Amino acid sequence: MHIVVLRTLPFLTNCDPAISSRCFFRRHVEPERLDIVKRETQVLAVDLIVPPTDREDGDDPDVAAEVASCHYDMAPRETQLYDLLGVPSGASTEDIKKAYRKKAREHHPDKNPDDPNAGEKFQEMAAAYEILIDEDSRDLYDRYGVDGISGKRGGGPGPGGMDPADIFAELFGQGPGMRFGFDFGGPGSRPRRTKGEDSVIPYNVTLEDLYNGKSVKMNMEKEVVCCTCKGSGGKGSAKPKPCANCEGKGWTFIQTQIGPNRYGTSRAQCGECGGQGEKLREKDRCKKCKGQKTVKEKTRQEIFIERGMSDRQRIILAGAGDEEPGVPPGDVIFVLKTHPHSSFERSGNDLLTTVHITLSEALLGFSRILLTHLDGRGVHVNSPKGKIIKPGDSIILRNEGMPVHKNPDQKGHLYVILEVDMPDEQWLKTVDAKALEAILPPKKAEMEPKPAVIDEVPFEEGDIVDVRETPFAGSNFFDHGFDTQFGEGDEDDWEDDEDDDDEHGEPDCRPQ
Question: Keyword Ligase: yes or no (predicted)?
């Protein structure tokens, strides 16, 4: 047995009041049950693990003296990673898995194409999940916050002896220390920066732009290092002093409401020093940059939209982003956003369009310019004689699709749906109806055998929109109720089957 002191009341100054508060003080616990006790009692950490003693109740005087000298940490407990996944700090492993799967579906970048920060948010959740799903790293985080994860305060490295900051850098392709907005530095430190922040700019393009290619020049404004103070922010040899508000850390703890009667604690950039951890006195600040170390400068940038580029593709101008003292500038990233086209639809390197032809063209064929392409060319098509075209038939125009990116001499295909326009009543008045009937295929004969009961119903034109808007069997008439039966349910009802014992991923089939 081990005697453990559980840190349940962070506002206490020593261990004695915990005895009267009945907070699992000096409790005998098997080592393998420590984690369970912490989860069940919502404790903050295990402050002290005392070796086994011969005294049954742990009242050894030496132990009591050691316990009495134990002081509590006044810092509030961090819950930022739990808040990202929307779970309480005492959540089970299964609850964390379930919450992560649900959040991942909601916030996946592919489902949020209009949010330039969707990728970063998704990676933050993934990083939080990787920490909380591992018992060792979760224990360190529960005890010391992200400081414990980075190996500070005696917490040691993460699983496998590696710093989780470096583990996630490999997972998500970021530099060490750049952990999706999490600070993996210790007390008094600020996040390690390997480069300035990237600027992500959505840029609207047309399908013609992507088909033909385009060069765009634009005026932009960026931050550059102040040439007067060389990025120090101060006059001459003036030196900044540690920020009193954050004690030089660059961040402070804040409490945010995450639900009814639920509050979480996380780190936020210090508002006094802007996350720098240090400040200059106003009289010592550089006159040009006002102590900000950077100034705004207008620049002219040019981007090349290459033929065959796709929607949401990125154009990166390396090093064209805002400058910061001591680190290389970030990148400017343009994300292409394609406007819907009035005539063409794109699927990969293929195009789809609809062309209307007359009844005579459908019956007798045609030889004409069928459409105008995205580059302004007319596309002439000959239909074979003797081939009747039915409404909705499609043809393929090979090598008339989108250029292949990086290989524009190759193209996809253009698919054309042919819609047959019927003549109107005015045309019918100009022709001999009997002569027309004689050359057209015969009318359909009455069905045989005839039904026993036949009702005469008037012919009346209607609008299919009226039918589509009519509720039917709890759903849209044309949906056949599929949404109600199989889709659009509560996402909690849909779970990924996970069987840790099934290493080969075979389905678990059971008779119904």
Answer: no
